[in-house]
Write a structure and sequence with these properties.
The protein is α/β, with parallel strands linked by helices. Helix content is about 30%, strand content about 25%. The protein is globular.
Length: about 260
């Protein structure tokens, strides 16, 4: 049985990353290493630090990554691409040229008999009013059209510098460490969502840039209450951690990619 892979948050092209070409090559080498054993790859958002397509223009660069996605889909590997909060502005290029399956919303799907809830994670319970305002603005069709009135060079500079500023506001450009179940908004969202969706076995997110593997809540089945629990994962990132999840149809593993090998 072929495996299913999940990863997120490469932020390719970030002006806050010292060696962006090296980072892209590392991601491409990983995708190349799994291409023969993958049934599907789920990219859960923010694979680009800023991505905006104009009608006849797409962002410069990323040729190795886009080529590898195209190779995977040409081989029959399903590549699912979830938009995050940095790469919302895609209008058909990734689907038409690279063959990916695009998701703009959270997805509930069955994989090898298990039910998965998959999402980037932005907008799911985050209480920050500034972030919620920006998210509404970024998803607003009128604001999206206004962005494309800029010349592509200006539009890309605006987006990349906004993303750089956002990252460098954090210590060392990294996210805050795990804050505990009561404070992590994705954990709180998951526990609340489980109350009305007891059929879900796995919740997998990106966005938060931390590694988390947590058993949460208690599932209820039609036959009565059981002791089974759902499993929640946050995937880390491909800037500092190079982490991913892999499901073999029976077991789920959260692993770290090290050049030439995978380390549990």
């Amino acid at each position: 049985m072929k495996q299913v892979y999940f990863l997120a948050d490469a932020h390719l092209g970030s002006l806050a990353i010292a060696h962006p070409r090296m980072q892209e090559r590392r991601l491409v080498r990983f995708l190349d290493s799994i291409k023969e054993k993958a049934a599907a790859v789920y990219l859960l958002g923010d694979m680009f630090d800023f991505w905006n397509e104009y009608r006849y223009v797409v962002p410069k660069g990323y040729t190795r990554f886009l080529g590898k996605l195209s190779e995977l889909t040409d081989m029959g590997v399903e590549v699912h691409y979830f938009t995050g909060n940095h790469d919302i502005w895609t209008y058909g290029y990734l689907e038409q040229e690279c063959g990916v399956i695009l998701h703009r919303q959270a997805l509930t799907t069955e994989i090898y008999g298990k039910v998965f809830f998959l999402a980037h994670g932005d907008g799911l319970g985050d209480p920050d009013p500034k972030f919620k305002f920006l998210r509404r603005m970024f998803h607003n069709p009128t604001c999206q059209r206004l962005l494309n009135f800029f010349h592509p060079w200006w539009g890309m500079q605006l987006g990349l510098n906004w993303a750089k500023h956002s990252r460098l506001k954090r210590a060392d450009g990294k996210e805050a460490p795990y804050m505990g179940e009561d404070k992590e908004f994705l954990v709180r969202f998951t526990k609340d969502y489980m109350k009305t969706h007891p059929e879900i076995d796995y919740y997998i997110y990106g966005h938060r840039h931390i590694e988390l593997d947590l058993m949460v809540g208690r599932k209820r089945e039609n036959r009565g209450e059981t002791n089974s629990r759902a499993r929640m994962l946050i995937l880390g990132d491909w800037i500092w951690q190079f982490t991913y999840a892999v499901f073999d149809g029976e077991h789920m593993f959260l692993e770290t990619y090290i050049e030439g090998e995978s380390k549990p």
